[in-house]
Amino acid sequence: MRVLEDDLFPSTPGKVKIERAGTMNRQLHRCFASTSTMFLWALFLIAMTASYLSFQSFVDTSSKYFAASWGGLHWERQIRASAAPRRPPGSAAGAGMSVLVTGAAGFVGTHCSLALRKRGDGVVGIDNFNAYYDPSLKKARKALLSSHGVFVVEGDINDGRLLAKLFDAVPFTHVLHLAAQAGVRYAMENPASYVHSNIAGLVTLLEACKDADPQPAIVWASSSSVYGLNDKVPFSERDRTDQPASLYAATKKAGEEITHTYNHIYGLSITGLRFFTVYGPWGRPDMAYFSFTRNILQGKPITVYRGKDHVDLARDFTYIDDIVKGCLGSLDTAGKSTGTGGKKRGPAPYRIFNLGNTSPVTVPNLVSILEKHLRVKAKKNMVEMPGNGDVPFTHANISLARQQLGYKPTTNLDVGLKKFVKWYLSYYGYTRGSKNFRQ
Ligand SMILES: O=C(O)[C@H]1O[C@H](OP(=O)(O)OP(=O)(O)OC[C@H]2O[C@@H](n3ccc(=O)[nH]c3=O)[C@H](O)[C@@H]2O)[C@H](O)[C@@H](O)[C@H]1O
Asked: What domain of life does the UniProt record list for this protein's source (predicted)?
């Protein structure tokens, strides 16, 4: 720029008038020449950037394609083999189902997949193995499933292409949708994960189900948390559910509304199950009974929340085997979806059931039972319940599930926690008297 200015306004005043016109012409010519050079350079740079970007997107797409853990003939063979029912011909229970279980490497997903497989149904699992809690526990559950012939695809329910591929490979009769972002209090830390899994993921799954031919019947996990601030006990399916206390609860409530629209528009058969604080072997480490056990064994303090005026919090803790019976009962009684290729052919069932235990236990009582089975005294910090989405108590009315599913919980908290503690000690390699934990 300095060179150009110096040339246009030369520093020798006497020459200015005489040489001005010629100099101007020359300078303008040079100026245009350099502008067009700059223009060409700019074009060249734009072309380079464009080709770099398209190369990048090619690399991204192809690396995604090549890195995908699904697809291919071998993969499809595994899917079909896992999905094939193996009930003996002429079995009273019929030909058997082909069930796609989402969240199969999760706590409830693993137990349900095993129970389905054991009675001869075909099961394919899908799980994204996210790191909300220790993924090695999820991998261990996957290994357990694999040893029973259940194949689990590593993938996300937000991946519509993967879901379409699964429905192309297998005419699933049922979907047991358990994949979700769980946990009531974590919603304040990571709200987006609840929207991603419980809203966006649910819609992607429903889209795949509605497009599938045949359309499967869907049984999915809602939550007792939808009762929110409702204080009429026991909670009945007819009670109001429009006062959620946490974002988790709000996304589960939204799921009930979203599934209703898919039932209404596309004729998908829907059953929503409101689980009440499910616990047991292979459970979720983020839940109180599990983290209390870990801390008690490690000699660390536990924080026990208390309600207003020092009232103890209570939960209708429900043992996993009872929940599994409720899930299988729901699959067995689910009416068929009526649509094909995204078109409704007639009304389909829309059901919601409470799956609880009907006998709430206070959190301090839960701790006493754990102390008894662990034979270790807990170091308790009693603190007032923070305003983080918790509700003071839950209590299920299960008449509807009893009537329509034959649901009848049989395991009380004492027996259930005894089984959990036995599993915990063996899974984490703890021998009484020793301080060697794997955790
Ligand atoms: O039924 C459900 O729909 C939900 O059940 C479960 O939620 P919750 O009933 O809240 O279970 P959980 O966290 O074990 O806390 C149990 C009790 O311990 C208290 N609690 C908890 C932690 C702590 O450090 N201290 C404490 O006192 C706490 O205040 C509470 O009173 C599932 O996690 C959830 O995903 C969903 O499925």
From this structure: Eukaryota
Tell me, using a 6 A CB cutoff, whether residue 303 lines ligand 1.
Answer: yes
Cα of 334 from ligand 1 centre, angstroms: 29
Q: What is the mean pLDDT of residues 155-183?
A: 98
Could you give the CA distance from residue 77 to residue 87 in angstroms, rounded to a whole number? 20
The Å distance, Cα 214 to ligand 1 centre, comes to 38
Distance in Å, CA 135 to ligand 1 centroid: 20
| pLDDT tens readout for residues 69-92 | 789 999 999 999 999 999 877 777
pLDDT in tens, 258-315: 999 999 999 999 999 999 999 999 999 999 999 999 999 999 999 999 998 999 999 9
Please name the CATH architecture into which domain 71-87+94-278+319-356+395-410 falls.
3-Layer(aba) Sandwich (3.40)
Beta-ladder partners of 98: 122
Atom of ligand 1 lying closest to residue 385 CA? 29
- Domain spans, the chain: 71-87+94-278+319-356+395-410
CB of 245 closer than 8 Å to CB of 229: yes
CB of 363 within 6 A of ligand 1: the answer is: yes
pLDDT at 406 over 70: yes
Q: Which of 248, 279, 424, 430 is catalytic?
A: 248
**Annotated catalytic, 132?**
no
State residue 191's pLDDT score. 98
Question: Which protein residue has the closest C-alpha to ligand 1 atom 4?
Answer: 277
